[in-house]
Amino acid sequence: MSDKSKIISGFSKLSKQQKIDWLNSLTSHSKADAILKEQLAPDPKTQNIFDGLSENVVSNFVLPFSVAPNFLINGKSYCVPMVIEESSVVAAAASAAKFWAMRGGIKTEVISTTKLGQVHFSWDGTSEELHLIWEELVELFLVATEDLTKNMRARGGGIKKIELKDFSHIEPDYYQILVSFDTKDSMGANFINSILERIGDILEDFVGSHPQLKHHNLEVIMAILSNYTPDCIVRASVECRLDKEDLPHCGQSGTMAFAKKIQKAVRIAEIDPYRATTHNKGIFNGVDAVIIATGNDFRAVEACGHTYAGRNGQYASLSHCEVTETTFKFWLDLPLAVGTVGGLTTLHPLAKLSLELLGNPSAEELMQIVAATGLMQNYAALKSLVTTGIQHGHMKMHLSNIVNHLEASPAETQNILEHFQEKKVTFTAVRDYLAAIRRQKV
Ligand code: MEV
Questions:
Q1: Can you give the residue ranges of every domain in the chain?
Q2: I need a surface site. Which of 26, 173, 204, 289 has the fewest CB within 10 A?
């Protein structure tokens, strides 16, 4: 088959079985059909939900659903659901959470909850002309979107601010309407986008029929929410007395040295973008895992977090650390636009269960849980990095993956786990050891 002969029309209209048959014709993997079917939900009702979430669904891609207990956040304890495939992430989060639960727990606070959207447009008149009609326009936008905002207003949310931004000094004729929203417990993407599109239409109509302005050109380029929400911020922090409590692995004598090493590690991520990227990736190991488990949009959260990390002109650490003679303080400020109603949060059975496990939190409470998990993940990573090194814990957890990969029997697995308890774990070492066991048996 030439590559062109693999182009197919009407694929989306085929039944699931027909799609799978077509895929089978592409691969030499004789078990492709069986593998795809093995991963389908046994209950057709559940599979129907997944089929409806995307297009051309031929199977499900299953990831581990884990829980990390012992999160004490503002005095309330949580068992945090996490969806992540990377070994040791959940263990690290749970262990850090327990450690800090013994030291007063994690404090969190929602600083702001504003979500944003933009109507980008071009205008070949002057900025002054736009400003002359601006007040009238804002009033019009508010009135003409009343039907869309009614329910949200009843819940205490809605449009908070509508601003005109002039970028024509950077890009000829380019202006923007920046709209601030409070979407309460919903992520609000559909709500925001519907309002923005309505505002765009009104803008074009109003200017197009305005006696003094209609000779100019106004064109809406696009209307879409912004995933950058620097005013939707949550802070998570932990703090302990260095003169009264000890930090891990050190006992009282090594506590100050450990605290200073953590502080230095954070400082490095504050000044070096290469380290900051990895440092923040560790934070998002925790953040994304909870975001996915609760049916939220991890791409949006990541995109926003990384832009925020670069807000001062250089990409930098999202977490910070302060050490004094007596106190260790470690905290994280994170922009988090999340929802606990609507969308996947109610559709996906596990997302629904996750929210139930968390006590059906409001969006603000979920922001705090997510930030707390990111902070614990970051603390756990730094603790390992400045003490044993990351590979120590990582490879221990990875051992079970290697053993699975090598298809060791239960007895061989037991033997391998015991053998590698105090030894360095590498893929080659485990493979060779398994081969040796098998040779001995023969
Ligand atoms: C690995 O997934 C995450 C870490 O690299 C984070 C870090 O270096 O801080 C361990």
A1: 4-51, 65-108+234-387, 115-226, 394-441
A2: 26
Q: Copy the structure tokens of residue 363.
A: 């969006």
Q: What are phi and psi of 337, to 5 degrees?
A: -100, 100
pLDDT in tens, 103-122: 999 999 999 999 999 999 99
H/E element holding 235?
strand 233-241
281 catalytic residue (yes or no): yes
What's this model's pTM, rounded to 2 decimal places?
0.90
Query: Annotated catalytic residue: which of 216, 352, 394, 396?
Result: 394
Report the residue among 84, 275, 279, 281 best suited for mutation to probe ligand 1: largest number of ligand atoms under 8 A from its CB.
Answer: 281
Would you say residue 2 has pLDDT above 70?
no
The secondary structure element, H or E, covering residue 1 is none
What distance in Å separates the CA atoms of residue 339 and residue 358, rounded to the nearest whole number? 14
Question: Between vectors from CA 393 to CA 387 and to CA 395, what angle results, nearest 5°?
Answer: 130
As a CATH number, domain 65-108+234-387 is 3.90.770.10
Give pLDDT, residue 24.
Answer: 87
User: Nearest-CA neighbor of 191 among 166, 220, 213, 224?
Assistant: 224
User: What is the average pLDDT value for the chain, to the nearest integer?
Assistant: 94
Q: Is 394 in the pocket of ligand 1 (CB under 6 A)?
A: no
Length of the chain: 442
How many Å apart are CA 75 and CA 363, to the nearest integer?
18
Q: Which residues pair with 108 in a beta bridge?
A: 236
Whether 182 is catalytic is no
Q: Which two tokens stand for residue 58?
A: 């031929």
Is the domain covering 115-226 a CATH 3.40.50.300 domain? no
Mean pLDDT of the region 363-373 = 98
Q: Does ligand 1 come within 6 angstroms of the Cβ of 279?
A: yes
* Distance of alpha carbon 284 from alpha carbon 164, whole angstroms: 34
Q: How far is CA 427 from CA 242, 412, 417, 424, 439, in A?
A: 40, 15, 13, 10, 18
pLDDT of residue 178: 98
Query: What is the mean pLDDT of the segment spanning 329-338?
Result: 98
For the segment 381-397, what is each residue's pLDDT rounded down to a tens digit? 999 999 888 877 777 77
Residue 3 has pLDDT above 80, yes or no: no
- Cβ–Cβ < 8 Å for 373, 68: yes
CA distances 323 to 106, 243, 275, 379, Å, are 17, 12, 21, 14
Mean pLDDT computed over 173-201: 97
CB 218 within 8 A of CB 209: no
pLDDT class for 250, splitting at 50, 70, 90?
Answer: low
Catalytic, 394? Answer yes
Answer yes or no: same fold for 65-108+234-387 and 115-226. no
